[in-house]
Amino acid sequence: MTEVDATLPGESLLPLASGKSDSHRDYAFSQYHGHGVSNGWFALRRGDYKYIHYHGYGAELYNLADDPDEMHDISDQPEQQERMTDFDALLHELVTPAQVDADAKADQAARLEWIRHNMKSSSTRSWPGNSRERSRCENANGVCACNLVCGMRCCNCN
Question: Is the pTM of this model over 0.70?
Fold first, then answer.
């Protein structure tokens, strides 16, 4: 493990995958803060249950063994209230949803502002399979702004 690795949140699954450890967390955690969503969401999976917290909107709960397609939210069932409370407590042990959401929105706003100030406005190029002309995604230095926003180059910048 490098010094940088030691500063990152999370836990390596390498010891578990290589058979050097059988100790690991009993949950999985993810979060999403993509451009265009009004608020971020956070998800926890523990056993057969998946909890999804939509910041500012509430939460959902699914029994993935009974409902693998997540079609029937069981969060309002009285027998699930203790599980909902436990998931919410775990989420707040891991992150402060309001702060993470605010930080993500601030980061997105800064990236969009950078794009507005650095995109070439006169250069256009057709996207593959599309006859309409669109603005290129490269800034004046030839850097794909899509990469700066989402970490991936778009088909326009191949």
Answer: no
- Output the CA–CA distances (angstroms, integers) from residue 23 to 35, 44, 74, 93, in the order listed: 36, 19, 30, 20
Characterise 130 by phi-psi region: left (phi > 0), alpha (psi -120 to 50), beta (else).
beta
Q: Does residue 104 form part of some domain? A: yes
Residue 46 Ramachandran class (φ > 0 left, ψ -120 to 50 alpha, else beta): beta
Asked whether residue 112 falls in the same domain as residue 82, the answer is no
Q: What is each CA distance from 76 to 46, 59, 72, 81, in whole angstroms?
A: 18, 10, 11, 7
pLDDT tens, residue by residue, 41-77: 999 999 999 999 999 899 999 999 999 999 999 999 9
- Exposed, middle or buried, 155 (CB in 10 Å: 0-12/13-18/19+)? exposed
Query: Number of folded domains in the chain?
Result: 2
